[in-house]
Write a structure and sequence with these properties.
Helix content: 55-70%
Largest sheet: 4 strands, antiparallel
Shape: flat
Low-confidence stretches: none
Distance between the termini: 70 Å
Order of helices and strands: HHEHHEEHEEEH
Mean pLDDT: 92
């Protein structure tokens, strides 16, 4: 019986560990796309039940390919880790951040006021500040001008995770056009 209990405890521990690996980005250690989709679906369902909204921000690291080309892929990886750390450090309570893939990140959290336009602008500015600045990546330092950010707010009773992310992605491309025209 003792051996069985020990093996069962070990199995539960290993299952938790594997579940963590399946839901986190191996490079940055933050949530991955799979975890994002699960948590965003849960947040949308909770917001619909409570009659509230959530803000979703889509972040693209402009010029990331040039960093890889100039400094190498190891430096690019270190830059992604530094950006992920900056985003995590700037999160509010209740926020969720994930690496969507490549050089794209998504952050979402509860809409805490009814002034959604002002909140979206504040979130965009905060995320641009967090992704702007001097980043030390091993033997190199990069002065980075920041990522493009699109922020949207969920609609009443919205459950379409893909649609909400697509709207945030579109907003990010609008920000990118405005920054580089």
């Amino acid at each position: 019986q003792l051996e069985r209990d020990r093996l069962l405890a070990q199995l539960k521990h290993e299952n938790r560990e594997y579940s963590h690996y399946a839901m986190s980005d191996p490079l940055t250690g933050i949530a991955n796309r799979r975890a994002l989709m699960n948590e965003l679906a849960r947040a949308l369902a909770n917001a619909a039940r409570a009659g509230t909204a959530i803000h979703v921000a889509f972040i693209d690291l402009d010029g990331f390919k040039a960093i890889n080309d100039q400094y190498g892929h190891d430096a690019g990886d270190r830059f992604l880790i530094a950006i992920a750390s900056a985003l995590v450090a700037g999160m509010r309570e209740g926020d969720f951040v994930a690496r969507y893939g490549g050089d794209e990140f998504v952050l979402f959290g509860p809409a805490t006021s009814e002034a959604h336009d002002a909140s979206r602008a504040t979130i965009r500015q905060r995320l641009q500040r967090q992704t702007t600045g001097r980043f030390s990546i091993g033997t190199h330092t990069i002065d980075y001008a920041g990522g493009s950010v699109g922020v949207v707010t969920s609609q009443a009773n919205e459950h379409d995770v893909e649609g909400l992310l697509a709207r945030a992605d579109t907003g990010m491309y609008e920000d990118k056009k405005a920054r580089y025209i």
